[in-house]
Amino acid sequence: MSAQKYPTINRATTLYNTLFNHLENYTRSNSTAHPGVKEAASHAFEKLKKYYTQATQPVYAISQALNPRCRYSWWSYVGWPQDWIENAKKQVEDEWAKYVPVSSQQQEPSFDADYDDYEPEDIEEDALAAYVAERHRPRVDKLRFWKGREEASGG
User: How many domains does the chain contain in total?
Assistant: First the structure.
């Protein structure tokens, strides 16, 4: 899972979840799979869990939260337990707090500022909160989108 021209870290968590779901289907007691397949799936599930624990670093949660198609709602959609979701959100927000841009109201005033003309600015909203709350947009066929724009411009 790598690419030189685009990031792939956000796909790691979704891929792990897909693999877990497939393996769970084979390991269920009502599965019609051959017993050998069930046993192999069970071993694969345990091995995958070992590697998945290494994928709980904040970068994975951040990549999901910043993915425009996922944001904070993806974890609920795929059935994560609520405590996992809260932990992932906390990881994202803790990292954001380390690097959140300083608003213009929090900056040190310059010594030559004229306080007689000072008007307080509106409080800026948190960019992360605004982003994850923004509505999701449907998947777009990129080639059709750009072809339509090209035709509309007469090109």
Answer: 1
* Rounded (10°) angle between helices 9-27 and 35-52: 150
> Running DSSP on this structure, what letter comes out for residue 55?
G
pTM more than 0.85: no
Which domain, by its residues, includes 138? 9-99+127-152
d(CA 111, CA 35): 77
Question: Which residue pairs, CB below 8 angstroms and at least 24 apart, start in 92-98?
Answer: 92/58, 92/61, 92/62, 92/65, 92/128, 93/128, 94/58, 95/58, 95/62, 96/128
Write out the two tokens for 70. Answer: 């996922």
- Mean pLDDT value of segment 132-140: 71
The structure tokens 């310059």 sit at 110
